[in-house]
Amino acid sequence: LSEITGVIPALVTPFDENENLDEARMRSIVEFLIGRGINGLYLTGSTGEAFMMTLEERKRALEVVVDQVKGRIPVIAHIGAISTRLSIELAQHAEKAGADALSSVPPFYWGFSQDQVIGYYTDITNSTNLPMIAYNVPLAGLFGFDMIKRLSEIKGVEGIKYTAPTHFEIMRIKAEIGKDFIIYSGADEMAMSGLSFGADGIIGSFYNLIPETFLGIYDAVKSGDMARAKDLQETANAIIFFSLSRNPIAAIKRGMAWLGADAGYCRKPFGNFYDAESEAKLKEDFRGLKR
Ligand code: HMN
């Protein structure tokens, strides 16, 4: 994993007006992002609306992206599902399709035991040769340090996407688990913090919309220019908090369309900003932003 670093959008999945996977829009946003200098792509995660998609659609989305990327940047496939069997099906498909790494949320909803979660990651990593990035995210239940340590001992689990707010743990993971355990900071509004505490890269939703701002934060932190990193983070956060108070995935998709990369519609029950009235309101509110 050590070669997969930098700014990695958690790619949105474009759907058309009838909620079908929109392959043409998918290809065009991939080009748009590569053109902007991003360092990799993370597919079919929360931002990619994965849990609203069938396994076949998730597989197809990955195939389309890998075909479009043509090896120019690494592709990470989020293959998480609640059942190990389904996740293994996606993981083995991802390996065949040409993904560079896997990632997965822990199984959620039923409140699985720690041993069951360890079993889940062990079974998946035993089923493929791809490195696995465990995913620490409040939506699926946070791990805690001891659990992260146990996960890191599983062969094939080579890193973590860390979307918890406790950034001191990022430092602790590097100190106690080791520098080779790769950390991707996942909360976009704290990208600067995650990176300055030792994260190797950042994966998140807003890198679809304002990648340059985060490429700037990444470079600024790596070169020790904290004042510049903070200034850029403040700009990013104005846009992030604006979007979070509305409908973030839909706002990101619509904002991308304003920039020339139409990312299509969200699946219901998410809404959209496609009717003239809500789009006009979104634009007007956006213009009112202080930064
Ligand atoms: C993914 O799995 O699609 C994302 O990478 C998730 C990502 O870490 C986002 N977190 C969640 O959606 C829970 C963040 O980008 C988040 O949207 C952002 O920090 C705003 O809070």
Please, could you describe this protein's structure?
The protein has helices spanning 23-35, 55-69, 84-97, 114-127, 145-152, 168-177, 191-196, 211-222, 226-244, 248-258, 276-287; strands spanning 6-9, 41-43, 75-78, 101-104, 132-136, 157-162, 182-185, 201-204. The protein is α/β, with parallel strands linked by helices and 291 residues long. An eight-stranded parallel sheet has the order 1-8-7-6-5-4-3-2. The model has no long low-confidence stretch (mean pLDDT 96).
Characteristic terms for this protein:
291 residues, alpha/beta, 11 helices, globular, binds 2,4,6,7,8,9-hexahydroxy-5-methylcarboxamido nonanoic acid
Number of helices, where a helix is a run of at least 4 consecutive DSSP H or I residues: 11
**Spatial arrangement of strands, main beta sheet:** 1-8-7-6-5-4-3-2
Largest sheet: 8 strands, parallel
Q: Estimate the helix proportion, in percent.
A: 40-55%
Cα-based radius of gyration, to the nearest Å: 18 Å
Report the sheet-strand fraction: 5-15%
Number of distinct beta strands: 8
Q: In terms of per-residue confidence, which ranges show pLDDT below 50 for 5 or more consecutive residues?
A: none
Bound molecules: 2,4,6,7,8,9-hexahydroxy-5-methylcarboxamido nonanoic acid
What distance separates the N and C termini? 36 Å
Q: Give the overall shape.
A: globular
Mean pLDDT: 96
Structural class: alpha/beta
Order of helices and strands: EHEHEHEHEHEHEHEHHHH
